[in-house]
Structures are given as structure tokens and as C-alpha cells.
Amino acid sequence: MTMKPDYKNWMPKGMVLGTLCGAIGCIGASAICHYTDLIKNETGRNVISGSLLFAGVMAGGAALWMAKMYQAFSYDGKRKMSRQIIEGIAEHVKLPAGSKGLDVGCGSGALAIACAKRNADTVFTGIDRWGKEYASFSQALCESNARAEKVSNVSFRRGDATHLDFPDESFDAVVSNYVYHNIPGDRQALLLETLRVLKKGGTFAIHDIFSKSKYGDMHSFVQKLRDMGYEDVRLADTTDGTFMTKREALWMGLSGSALLIGKK
Fold first, then answer.
1. Could you tell me the maximum CA-CA distance found in the chain, to the nearest angstrom?
2. Which of 80, 108, 214, 215 has the most CB within a 10 Å radius?
3. Using CA atoms, how far apart are residues 84 and 242, in angstroms rounded to an integer?
């Protein structure tokens, strides 16, 4: 039997269903409160019933938004935004034989595997802490996906993006996708920590929500990298139709998404 990769979904199905059940439960409880005598005091009954109805409507709206997110990010759905993003980042990674690459925050292994497939004579490593927030992602899942894709030049290990367990200039390429905005603190410092392990002449392609509220002044950061000797550094907007439209980015909460790319 042919194995199929399972890259999961950035919007967990359990979260969608749980929120929907919560909405139905609140609306049902509101109706029970309103149309029965469980609560004798009419004023109290109206307040509780109204509060439950409001909570149910809000949860229903959230469930609808989550469902649309799930549909958009599904690898098997019509939109396939996740696949478009992963393949789009991987296109920027073209390495000579014998090179080594690193994917920071590899999740289900999609980006590391895509880069390894495009660079068959290289070795890629994917690291992640695989926290409880994304319990369906794991090292075992990454390894299973690599086998399903028949990619043998990739490996996975547990790691911390804030303190990479690698010496300076260990890799010929570093990549990442929607990771650092989830980590509190100085995110420009996180970028520098990733670039620390990149060899001179190495390539980087980092995709994230580079909004000012999350990263500060990224245009100054790009200039800082240029002043440090990095080459071809640029911040490429990916909400211009490259990976998504501005309208999609707005309702998904992904405004500011861009690719930080260049060479050391």
C-alpha cells in the first residue's frame, strides 16, 4: 500500500469542532434557560439566557472563521495555501552537492522535506520543540512523512529556536515558515540567532508575519544585515498574490507576511 504524507493543518480540526460544539452548547443552554422554569427569577433567567446566547453566537463566529482557515490551509483542499507557501519558500533554496540545510520550527516536516527533495545531493535537518499547542505534530510524524515522500536526505530532532544547538556557520541554508511570531521576546534577535549558524555565502529564506507590532522596524533590520556584509537581502511581500492575496491575509490575521531572503 502506498503511503501518503500527512502534513496536518495549521488550524487543528479538533479546535474547530470543539469551538463549534461550544457554540451549540451555549445556544442550547440559552434556549433551555429561556423556555423553562429552571431559573425562577425572570430577570436572572433573562440575563443568563442572554449571556449564553451571546457566548454561543461569538463562538459560532469563531468556529466559522476557523473552518474557513482549515479549508484554506488543507493540503488536500481546493485552496492548498500551505502547499503553495511551502513550495514557494523551497524554490529559493538551490544548493550544490554536499551542502547542509536547516529548517527551524519544522512542524510536520513539510518545508524540510520540500527543500531536501529539490536538493537531492544535500542533507537537511529539521528541528522543533513540538509543544502541546500543536500536539498532532511530532518527530515521528516528520519521519513518517519523509518516508512517504521517499526522501532519505532529511532528518529531524528536537531543538530550541531561541538557542540553536549548533556551532556558528554550520549550514549552507537556513529556512523557516511562520515560527518566530509565536515566540515572545526580541524577534530580531531570534533572526540573528538563526543566521548565526549560516555559513559565509549561505542562503536564507525565512517566512513570517513581519509586521511592526511583532518585529519592530524590519526595514532597518534589513539595512543592518546589509551593513554586516549580507548580500541580496530583501523583504518580499507574500500577500501580493505570491502566496496569498491581501484580502486573504487580512481575514486570516496574516497581514505583514513576507519572505526575508538573502545570502550571508
1. 77
2. 108
3. 9
Nearest C-alpha neighbor of 58 from the set 1, 28, 19, 30: 19
Integer angstrom CA distances of residue 16 from 55, 65, 69, 108, 156: 16, 9, 9, 19, 29
- CA 80 to mean position of chain CA atoms: 14
User: Of 73, 97, 116, which marks where a domain is finished?
Assistant: 73
254 and 134: one domain? yes
Tell me which residue of 205, 222, 216, 214 sits closest to 255, measured CA to CA. Answer: 214
- Of 62, 65, 66, 60, the closest CA to residue 25 belongs to 60
Q: Answer whether residue 47 is part of any domain.
A: yes
Residue pair 180/209 in contact by the 8 Å Cβ criterion:
no
Domain residue limits at 55: 13-73
Confidence class for position 210, pLDDT limits 50, 70, 90:
very high
The confidence band for 206, taking pLDDT boundaries of 50, 70 and 90, is: very high
- Cβ atoms 194, 165 nearer than 8 A: no
- Say yes or no to pLDDT of 10 above 90: no
Shared domain check, 99 and 46: no
Please give the pLDDT value at position 1.
Answer: 61
| Per-residue pLDDT tens over the stretch 11-35 | 888 889 999 999 999 999 888 988 8
β partners of residue 3:
none
Q: Do both 246 and 136 map to the same domain?
A: yes
Number of H helices, E strands in the chain: 9, 7
**Per-residue confidence (pLDDT) for residue 125, from 0 to 100:** 98
